Amino acid sequence: MKKRLVAGAAMGAAIMAGSLLAATPANAAWAFCNPGYLCAYYDSNGNGPNFAGQYDNPSWNGSWGYYNNVTSSLWNNGTMSNVNVYVNMNYSGANFTVYRGTTKRHTDLFWDTTGGRPAGYWNDNLESNLWL
Ligand SMILES: [Ca+2]
């Protein structure tokens, strides 16, 4: 009987947790990003696998994986600098600055019109980064 009550209580807690999750804004889902790094995520709101760069990277493809043209959200968790991101390798093509801090994250590049670009322009298009 006691076990049953415990199980019932656990289930109730799980349901409550589910309700809380549903009420939480989507932008609360950001995966951890090491301090000092630029993190570029596969999906919006910091979800999915991510490229994490501490230095200048002329290409986001490498031994760590293939991250060119897949990014949908960005977080500059740098400790000192802002960072530019580019649509081509070797710091070329259209670019914008990702400013430091959690309030400056780019939550969904599909709808991001930074620099006056149309929706969809930046999404799945970034390939390199240069710290400023
Ligand atoms: Ca590109």
UniProtKB/TrEMBL annotation:
Q: Per the record's keyword annotation, is Signal included, yes or no?
A: yes
Keywords attached to this Swiss-Prot or TrEMBL record, sorted alphabetically, are: Signal
Q: Which Pfam families match?
A: Inhibitor_I36 (PF03995)
The domain of life is: Bacteria
Q: Does the keyword Signal apply?
A: yes
Q: Which residues form the signal peptide?
A: 1-28
Gene3D superfamilies in the record, alphabetically?
Answer: Crystallins
Per its record, how is this protein called by name?
Peptidase inhibitor family I36 protein
Its ancestry begins with:
Bacteria, Bacillati, Actinomycetota, Actinomycetes, Micrococcales
